Amino acid sequence: MEQSEIILRAIGVLTETQEMVRRLNGDADVDADVGDAQLGRLVTEVFPPVEVPVDATPAEAGQAVVDALMPAAISLVGAFAFVFSELAEVHDTGRSDITSTELLRTLALRLSNRDSDDE
What we know:
This protein is mainly α.
């Protein structure tokens, strides 16, 4: 999965979570499992399956898992960190002309357009 796609999916998770929180604050019935399901799908798709050799020592098995999962973990954390930094920049500059929802939508469109330009 490309980094831009991971960022787009992270934006989706954040947008869905934001909507769920709004509905919770409005005392609406909310299925919290919906947000967890989207995050779970993202994690499942980003992290590869790990095969550990049967004869591996515990240290070798641990290293095999770390080696297989570290790049995916860095990509996932990087995606959320990127989105956070974009939201923080808007907040820190005191902009009131755009909501966080609008910023997330704008970021998603910008990334989508860049991806379609690359094809």
